[in-house]
Design a protein that fits this description.
Elements (H helix, E strand, L loop, with lengths): L12 E10 L4 H15 L5 E8 L4 E8 L2 H9 L3 H11 L1 E11 L9
Antiparallel strand pairs: 1-3, 1-4, 2-3
Amino acid sequence: MSTGFAKTPAPPYWMVTFTSQRNDVGMQEYAEAADRMITLAATQPGFLGVESVRGDDGFGITLSYWTDEAAIAAWRRHAEHTPVREYGRTHWYEHFEVRVARVERAYGFGKH
């Protein structure tokens, strides 16, 4: 899975990193839930974008970008996101890490 580059505004803004190691259980179910969570997050106030990749070995990194910490907290409490997150802990992940950071500087390069 790859979502491409997020189109974020000039900093400052916030980033949540979700780094995970998947197991082999329910791969189709997981893919559908992951797609649904990205679609749902995109409708939330304060959402700026997402970038997500997963290797064949199950290791993945998802970066989501938000206007502020309040938007991140609201997403964490979202009625549909909460049970999917809890289900993932017991069924899909061997290990994961969540990190939250304020982006102070950002730049890029592209041949377009």
